[in-house]
Design brief:
It is a single chain. The chain has about 325 residues and is an alpha/beta fold. Helix content is about 25%, strand content about 20%. The strands form three sheets. A nine-stranded mixed beta sheet has the order 1-4-8-10-9-11-12-13-14, sandwiched between helices. The longest helix is centred in the middle third of the chain and has 17 residues. The two termini are about 25 Å apart. The relative contact order is 0.13.
Length: about 325
């Protein structure tokens, strides 16, 4: 597919060219500097063979086939909250959003931000538009690129698909390196991208693929940090296991009342294991730091753009030391 350049000056207008049927455009407040226009962001949608879906395997907790329904030969899946969703409508989108912020320099210390969008979301309408993830990356100072896969399309379903499988996330990240090299326009950068550390950010229902990606995904050595935005609803044992095994990485869970109960469960499990954590808002996301930030009164649906601060992703990215763009 052809790459489209997206500038901070006219992000909303360029967005319609990137995804013609997306009508939600994020706007940035800064158009340039005294030295001239800001560098452009490049972004594209790529089809990944290793994307979470389509998926024809099993659910790890039940051992049952994921596609457990057939309606006149049309396969579907029974989601606990959403009822029956059919593969052709909900579990067939293998597109992945790939983005390079303006000013990104692969010659400097860098990272890959991987973003998991949560339930009832699409890449165009929600990740790019409503959640303003590209804007928040561009407006930060982090020298990092972005990868965001499509999970169940606009559905009440947190299924991880291929990320449930051993090394499934590693295969995905290997393909991400190929897409990033294509987007940057230099195939010889593939190996560099394949070695960059990973900062995984999950919102809401993104907790399930995140829990499996960090524990069975095959990327343990590359994980720099895990950020959960109102995103602990189960799988606390997996998160505890990852925290114990990943003292080189940072962990941040910020939450509203929506996920308060399971965050408390995770905190209790850490205390029982004598693992020290903080409930103060961190000044920096240092290696080995474990932080929980309660944000009472914040709307869950708006959490990616309005939480303990406006544009919390920008706040997070700017507190990872050593990665200035």
């Amino acid at each position: 597919m052809s790459d489209k350049a997206i500038s901070r000056r006219s992000f909303g207008q360029s967005l319609t060219r990137l995804v013609a049927f997306c009508t939600l455009g994020a706007q940035t407040a800064v158009a340039g500097t005294a030295k001239g226009p800001l560098p452009k962001m490049k972004a594209g949608l790529y089809h990944f063979a290793s994307a979470p879906f389509p998926y024809k395997g099993i659910e790890p907790k039940t051992g049952a086939k994921f596609l457990d329904v057939s309606d006149n030969g049309r396969p579907g899946h029974t989601a606990p909250r959403g009822g029956v969703y059919f593969e052709d409508q909900t579990y067939s989108d293998n597109r992945v959003l790939v983005a390079l912020p303006g000013g990104f320099d692969l010659g400097k210390k860098a990272a890959i931000v991987v973003y998991f969008h949560g339930n009832q979301a699409t890449l165009q309408r929600d990740v790019i538009g409503r959640q303003r993830v590209l804007d928040q990356l561009q407006n930060s100072n982090i020298n990092a690129v972005l990868i965001a896969p499509q999970f169940a399309f606009d559905a009440l379903d947190s299924s991880a698909g291929r990320f449930w499988q051993n090394d499934g996330f590693a295969h995905f990240m290997a393909e991400a390196a190929i897409a990033l090299a294509d987007l940057i326009g230099a195939q010889n950068t593939r190996n560099k991208f394949a070695k960059l550390p990973i900062i995984l950010v999950a919102f809401s229902g993104g907790y399930n693929p995140a829990a499996y990606a960090v524990t069975v995904g095959g990327v343990a050595k590359r994980m720099m940090g895990l950020v959960l935005l109102d995103a602990i609803y189960s799988e606390t044992d997996r998160f505890v296991a990852w925290i114990k095994a990943s003292r080189h990485a940072f962990f941040l869970s910020a939450y509203s009342e929506a996920s308060e109960e399971e965050n408390a469960v995770l905190e209790r499990k850490l205390r029982s294991g004598r693992i020290v954590y903080s409930t103060e808002t961190p000044n920096q996301l240092l290696p080995g730091s474990i932080s929980f930030v309660a944000t009472p009164g914040v709307e869950h649906e708006d959490y990616v753009t309005r939480a303990w601060v406006d544009d919390p992703l920008t706040w997070v990215f700017d507190r990872v030391p050593g990665l200035a763009r």
